[in-house]
Amino acid sequence: MMQSISHVQPPLSTRKDDIAAAEPVQATTDSEVSSEKKSRSEDKRDNARFEQDQRLREERLSQETLDEISRDLETLHAVGLNFTRHDETGRTMVRITNRDTDEVIREIPAKQVLDLAAKIEEMVGIIFDEKV
Predict the structure, then answer these.
(1) Which of helix, strand or coil describes residue 93?
(2) Cis peptide before 10 (omega within 30 of 0)
(3) In what order do the strands lie in the sheet containing 92-98?
(4) Measured distance CA(81)–CA(95) in Å, rounded
(5) Cβ 95 vs Cβ 84: under 8 Å
(6) pLDDT tens sequence across 23-82
(7) Helix (H) or strand (E) holding 12
């Protein structure tokens, strides 16, 4: 079935009312066009300044980060790592020393703890004949 044209398009009287209610289009003057262009160019300049400021901040932060990493690496170069094996327990120990003074900064695990573990194993061996 075909629909008639009257069902597809709104009645003519409604269209005339819509046209009468519409606001007229105003022509833009040269001064309005030029002010709009100025506004766009100012926006572009503001965006360019913002991006430049952002880049400078990132460069400054990057340089600060690199300086901090450099200081940390200098500290690491002044530290020595020595790996040894505890004779009685057979466990590995790490000894952190100052390379300039050969002072022991830290032992991981501490030698005293490994000595204590060795004594406990010895005591267990005296009390019990076998390990299960």
Answers:
(1) strand
(2) no
(3) 79-85, 92-98, 104-108
(4) 6
(5) yes
(6) 665 666 666 666 777 777 788 888 888 888 888 887 777 778 878 887 887 777 788 888
(7) helix 12-21
